């Protein structure tokens, strides 16, 4: 008998890939999960939902003053109107970078992230180093991303401790005045919408 | 772990990297969502199950190993699978929950409808611009040692209310099946220097979303 009844997971194989396989096989046999459902979930997050959604929001905010105002007033409604409501994005706030303020998002308690707008978080966002350091030394963390902010810009770090999800609206780079919404969206990086990157002129 | 020292550099990745670097990462996420859809626990119970992993496991496990291990523990605790089934890898029979299984044709609509947590609840006691202080120590006041969303680094610090979000489900209750107990939720801004004793820059701030029971009047 296992000696550690409090932690049933210790009964699973130690290799993580085998551990998942063992769970998956058992759950399919018990009729609790359907392989087609798993494939559908994976396909959704690999191919349908990702940072292109957030980039479309940012580009629209840059070019459409009415949408910009609506986004800053009630981001949940504004992104829902574009079809970007959903799981892990039920409550959304947009925070806008300006010459005075740079915003940056973290979840120190787990890995909360605006899934419908940015997809599944990258490994660095979920790493202990990012979660531990972003709140205490955001500027040193930004340096790990090659970003150096001027002393005139304050940093606001948003720790996603509740179900509110944050989207950073980066500053529109100079020299993009003639660009279309679609061209602009292509410039917007995932990291710029988490606040660990900037959008630069191509 | 917010504020902890010693974790080393952050390693950014290439934005064109695949969503899941390993197939088993994708499978872990999908299995966790599919089993969650059986409705045997809520999001707060699920988060708490990851936090309840033994500290040595929490530290050594990779991200998706935490998910998978916490899921295995939750399934046994809630009678979804038995310890014997987990140990042997063999099913003792089809589960009565099979009728509730997450079907492929409902994945898109379930992801699109999400699970909002705003509720009717008490009137907020604080207003925008008001100074407040977080309780100390940071801990669950209802269940000793239970789930809470007030990070330790922010306990006992003065901050300012910058947004009022209405009432949201209170994790300290909901993670322990004590009801949703909706409480007013605020965004509270703290000066970095008040949190850490020194700051990289005197103007830097950290903002947290905190439920009313985590807050007291500054002199309270």
Which helices and strands occur, and which strands form pairs?
The complex is a heterodimer of chains A (202) and B (220).
Chain A: H1 16-29, H2 35-48, H3 51-63, H4 65-73, H5 75-81, E1 91-96, E2 101-106, H6 115-118, H7 123-126, H8 128-133, H9 138-144, E3 154-159, E4 164-169, H10 181-187, H11 190-194
Parallel strand pairs in A: 1-4, 2-3
Helix pairs in contact in A: 3-4, 3-10, 4-5
Chain B: H1 23-36, H2 43-51, H3 55-60, H4 63-77, H5 83-88, H6 107-113, E1 118-119, E2 131-134, E3 158-168, H7 171-174, E4 183-191, H8 192-196, E5 205-211, E6 215-216
Antiparallel strand pairs in B: 1-3, 2-3, 2-6, 3-4, 4-5
Helix pairs in contact in B: 1-4, 2-4
Largest interface, with counts of residues having CB < 8 Å to the other chain, equals: A-B, 89 and 104 residues
Which fold name corresponds to the CATH topology of the largest domain in chain B? SH3 type barrels
- Uncertain stretches of chain A: none
Structural class of chain A: alpha/beta
Distance between the termini of chain B: 27 Å
**Largest beta sheet: strand ordering of chain A:** 1-4
The description of the largest β-sheet of chain B is: 6 strands, antiparallel
C-alpha termini separation of chain A: 63 Å
Largest sheet of chain A: 2 strands, parallel
**What is the CA-based Rg of chain B, rounded?**
20 Å
Number of strands of chain A: 4
CATH architecture of the largest domain in chain B: Roll
Number of helices of chain A: 11
User: What best-fitting shape of chain A do the alpha-carbon axes yield?
Assistant: globular
Q: How large is the radius of gyration of chain A?
A: 20 Å
Relative strand content of chain A: 5-15%
Query: Helices and strands of chain B, in N-to-C order?
Result: HHHHHHEEEHEHEE
Which CATH class of the largest domain in chain B? Answer: Mainly Beta
Low-confidence stretches of chain B: none
């Amino acid at each position: 008998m296992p000696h550690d009844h409090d932690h049933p997971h210790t009964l699973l194989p130690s290799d993580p890939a085998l551990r998942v396989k063992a769970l998956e096989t058992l759950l399919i046999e018990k009729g609790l999960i359907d392989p087609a459902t798993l494939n559908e979930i994976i396909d959704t997050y690999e191919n349908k939902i990702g940072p292109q959604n957030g980039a479309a929001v940012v580009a629209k905010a840059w070019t459409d003053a009415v949408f910009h105002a609506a986004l800053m007033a009630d981001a949940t409604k504004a992104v829902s109107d574009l079809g970007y409501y959903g799981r892990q994005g039920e409550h959304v706030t947009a925070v806008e970078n300006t010459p005075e303020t740079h915003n940056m998002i973290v979840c120190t308690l787990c890995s909360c992230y605006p899934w419908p707008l940015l997809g599944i978080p990258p490994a660095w966002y979920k790493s202990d180093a990012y979660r531990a350091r972003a709140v205490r030394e955001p500027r040193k963390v930004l340096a790990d991303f090659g970003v150096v902010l001027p002393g005139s810009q304050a940093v606001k770090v948003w720790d996603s401790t509740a179900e509110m999800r944050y989207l950073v609206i980066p500053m529109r780079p100079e020299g993009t005045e003639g660009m279309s919404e679609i061209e602009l969206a292509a410039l917007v990086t995932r990291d710029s919408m988490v606040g660990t990157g900037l959008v630069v002129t191509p | 772990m917010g504020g902890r020292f010693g974790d080393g550099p952050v390693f950014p990745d290439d934005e064109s990297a695949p969503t899941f670097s390993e197939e088993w990462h994708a499978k872990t996420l999908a299995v966790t969502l599919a089993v969650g859809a059986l409705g045997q626990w809520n999001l707060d119970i699920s988060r708490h199950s990851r936090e309840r992993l033994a500290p040595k496991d929490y530290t050594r496990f990779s991200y998706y190993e935490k998910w998978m291990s916490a899921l295995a523990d939750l399934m046994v605790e809630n009678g979804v699978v038995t310890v014997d089934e987990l140990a042997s890898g063999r099913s003792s029979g089809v589960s009565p929950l099979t009728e509730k299984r997450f079907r492929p044709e409902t994945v898109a609509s379930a992801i699109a409808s999400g699970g909002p947590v705003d509720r009717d609840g008490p009137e907020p006691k604080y207003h925008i611009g008001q100074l407040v202080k977080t309780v100390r120590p940071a801990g669950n006041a209802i269940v000793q040692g239970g789930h809470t969303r007030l990070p330790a680094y922010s306990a006992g610090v003065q901050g300012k209310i910058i947004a009022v979000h209405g009432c949201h489900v209170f994790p300290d209750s909901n993670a322990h099946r004590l009801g949703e107990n909706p409480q007013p939720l605020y965004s509270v801004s703290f000066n970095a220097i008040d949190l850490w004793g020194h700051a990289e820059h005197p103007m830097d701030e950290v903002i947290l979303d905190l439920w009313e029971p985590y807050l007291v009047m500054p002199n309270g």
